């Protein structure tokens, strides 16, 4: 009978941990045979701390995490206030046992004990990985248990766990995964400001990541989606336009192939023009023709290839400020040249 992947993971962990320091010299020693079976070469002294850890790991591997949790809880009650070298291992194994029982929220307390109190422990990284996986489950919709039933929203807890992952193992592949997962999560639930900020953080922290192109494009899309219309603040559109230009420089082939940046640029240009047009219409409403004429002329000059510019020309002709002969010829659609004054449009 072959050994299950879960059992191999646990037994190999026990073996690896047994070699970390002389404090684990009494741990079980296992050899992986060619058949795939784990053969025990040396057993710890019965009743010793090492034997209790080995028993707990065996119960988990055999699919009896409840039994493992029981003996580990008893052991921790007796030793958690001591300097016993097996405390970190006991917390970690109890966390795994609780996780296997579907009590992932309680498991977090054990993993937190390892992370907070034993950062130099060989179980530190494994505890962080488990918290990351729980965080992923929570942001993907897993509910927390309450009174034995899963109905409590755990999304904020999941978001916090992904943030902690980045703080605890900065620069690691796991932290990179957590950053992108959190940014994608915010984008998916339409928390667009948080999504844009998280994609920006990702680009800053992982500039050489193969996912930086995706992060930049999603940041652009999130910023554009945040724009609520010409009556709202459009200052963010200028920054987004600059980000598009950066994307075109950094990924020129992809920009040409997909044409997506041209489309986004055109959308930004149209949105900025609509804001200017809305301002001009307000001046007309309050009978300030001089200001309206000035704003409309500026719109036509800066955003000539937009629907708003066409409407502005029509207004100026109707007001007698422009004749058909003076109206500019329509220009081919395309991204408008950025100007320093765009920020006040």
Provide an overview of this structure.
- The protein has 345 residues and is mainly alpha-helical.
- The chain has two domains: 5-263, Alpha Horseshoe (Serine Threonine Protein Phosphatase 5, Tetratricopeptide repeat), CATH 1.25.40; 274-344, no CATH class.
- It is 64% helix and 5% strand.
- The protein is built from 15 helices and four strands.
- A hairpin with a 5-residue loop joins strand 1 and strand 2.
- 36% of the residues are buried.
- The model is unreliable at 1-9, 11-28 and 331-345 (pLDDT under 50).
Which keywords apply here?
345 residues, two-stranded antiparallel sheet, mainly alpha, disordered C terminus, single chain, 5% strand, disordered N terminus, Serine Threonine Protein Phosphatase 5, Tetratricopeptide repeat, 2 domains
């Amino acid at each position: 009978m072959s050994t299950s992947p879960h059992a191999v993971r646990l037994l190999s962990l026990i073996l690896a941990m047994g070699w970390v320091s002389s404090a684990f010299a009494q741990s079980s020693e296992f050899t992986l045979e060619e058949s795939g079976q784990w053969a025990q070469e040396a057993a710890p002294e019965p009743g010793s701390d090492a034997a209790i850890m080995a028993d707990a790991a065996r119960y988990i591997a055999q699919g009896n995490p409840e039994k493992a949790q029981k003996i580990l809880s008893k052991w921790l009650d007796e030793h958690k206030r001591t300097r016993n070298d097996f405390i970190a291992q006991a917390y970690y194994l109890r966390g795994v046992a609780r996780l296997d029982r579907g009590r992932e929220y309680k498991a977090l307390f054990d993993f937190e004990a390892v992370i907070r109190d034993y950062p130099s422990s060989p179980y530190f990284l494994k505890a962080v990985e488990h918290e990351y996986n729980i965080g992923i489950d929570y942001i993907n919709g897993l509910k927390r248990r309450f009174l034995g039933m899963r109905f409590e929203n755990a999304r904020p807890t999941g978001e916090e766990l992904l943030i902690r992952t980045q703080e605890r193992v900065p620069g690691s592949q796991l932290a990179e995964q957590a950053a992108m997962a959190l940014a994608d999560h915010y984008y998916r639930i339409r928390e667009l400001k948080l999504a844009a900020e998280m994609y920006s953080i990702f680009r800053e922290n992982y500039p050489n990541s193969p996912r930086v192109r995706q992060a930049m494009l999603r940041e652009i899309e999130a910023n554009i989606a945040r724009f609520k219309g010409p009556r709202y603040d459009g200052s963010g559109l200028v920054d987004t336009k600059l980000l598009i230009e950066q994307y075109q420089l950094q990924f020129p082939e992809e920009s040409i192939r997909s044409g997506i940046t041209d489309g986004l640029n055109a959308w930004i240009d149209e949105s900025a023009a609509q804001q200017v047009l809305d301002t001009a219409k307000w001046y007309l409403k309050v009978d300030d023709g001089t200001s309206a004429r000035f704003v409309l002329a500026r719109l036509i000059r800066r955003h000539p290839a937009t629907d708003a510019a066409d409407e502005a020309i029509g207004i100026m002709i109707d007001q007698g400020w422009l004749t058909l002969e003076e109206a500019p010829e329509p220009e081919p659609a395309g991204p408008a040249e950025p100007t320093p004054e765009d920020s006040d449009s």
